[in-house]
Amino acid sequence: MTQQGRTVAVVGGGYGGAAVAKALDEHADVVLIEPKDAFVNAAGSLRALTRPDEWAERIFFPYDGLLKRGSHLREYAANVDARGVTLASGERVEADYIVLATGSGYPYPAKTRTDSTAEAVAHFKESHAELAGAERVLIAGAGPVGLELAGEIRDVWADKRITVVDPAPELLPGYAGELRAELHRQLEALGIEVRLGAAFDAEPDVEPGRAGDVRVGIAGEKVEADIWYRAYGVSVNSGYLGDGLAPLNRRGQLPVTPKLNVDGHTHVYAVGDVTDVAEDKRAGYAMQHAEVVAANIIAQVNGEEPAQEYRPLAIPVVLLPLGPEHGVGQIPSDEGPAMLDAAAVADWKGRDLMYGKFAEIFGVA
Ligand SMILES: Cc1cc2nc3c(=O)[nH]c(=O)nc-3n(C[C@H](O)[C@H](O)[C@H](O)COP(=O)(O)OP(=O)(O)OC[C@H]3O[C@@H](n4cnc5c(N)ncnc54)[C@H](O)[C@@H]3O)c2cc1C
């Protein structure tokens, strides 16, 4: 039987939700509401595309390894109010605390387009076959996802022609100039062409990720390719909430307080990409939000005042691998932004893409 007053419904089991659920498992009765059968480590999805035999299965971590006491309901939340969650099936989960962690969607292959691991693995294998035969690859979007995709493709295929196009005038705005210069240097050395300040005149007729005759105008010039990928277009997963709990901002994000309560609700919290915290949206930040929320809920469960607050970093962090051995990174230091060289980026992220971290969290041998 659940103890009275200690039920926590965590809605969404991505980076933020899984971390909150795990941190609260010993202290409360956690119900994780998440339609997928496994946590998806999106950081590995681009390598799952380019090296599916080694990587496609490695980015999925079944939820049955996450919680010792709590339960996982494979359901979508259809509505949330201050007292509980109504599921898409019509069932209701009453809760004393609610944590909204439904994150964001992103075009495949960066995020999966199914809730089943078996289907997602099959998609990566099919998409790999489409990519393998394409000589000229066009990537729309030169943010971290587009550039990482270019790096992963180059690591497997030395001779494909890879072009990344973006209307923005510079790469990674908001990060140190030194980081941008090193990024340009490595992209050039890897033979990845980047066209900035240039957009597609119209979207190609061919579906992204499918081999075909891709013809597109880029800044008035006709360009042909054998496959293209869309590496832009984050969509916040908050449509199911409407404005019922608090008015969403124009991006669809939930307004939160420094304690990460949804505005106006002392027992409803939000973490990760679904929040309006003013910072780039990152798994690392979602997991830090999770620590703050878990500490605040533990305090409330124990009859104490929640006191933890989340403050975005003044100097943003980025780790951007270009395949397993290359890439750039920036971390904060007392002297300002500190650069990480390619070897450090490979050690911290590029080689294992956080597999080891999640294998430990999910109890995978
Ligand atoms: C290719 C790629 C690489 C990335 N690499 C990094 C990286 O290396 N480092 C980094 O810090 N960030 C990285 N990011 C960003 C990172 O993935 C996101 O910031 C992160 O996923 C946000 O975590 P989250 O917990 O907020 O939500 P998500 O991870 O998006 O998880 C949300 C979960 O909610 C579930 N859900 C959605 N709707 C509902 C609903 N109605 N009911 C119940 N559940 C629902 C979804 O199924 C999903 O499991 C990367 C992103 C991409 C696309």
Automatic annotation (TrEMBL):
The keyword Oxidoreductase applies. Residues 7-281 form the FAD/NAD(P)-binding domain. Keywords: FAD, Flavoprotein, Oxidoreductase. GO terms for cellular component: cytoplasm. It holds the Pfam family Pyr_redox_2. Transmembrane segments: none annotated. Gene3D superfamilies: 3.50.50.100. One of its GO terms (molecular function) is flavin adenine dinucleotide binding. InterPro entries: FAD/NAD-bd_sf, FAD/NAD-binding_dom. SUPFAM superfamilies: FAD/NAD(P)-binding domain (SSF51905). Belongs to the FAD-dependent oxidoreductase family. This is FAD-dependent oxidoreductase.
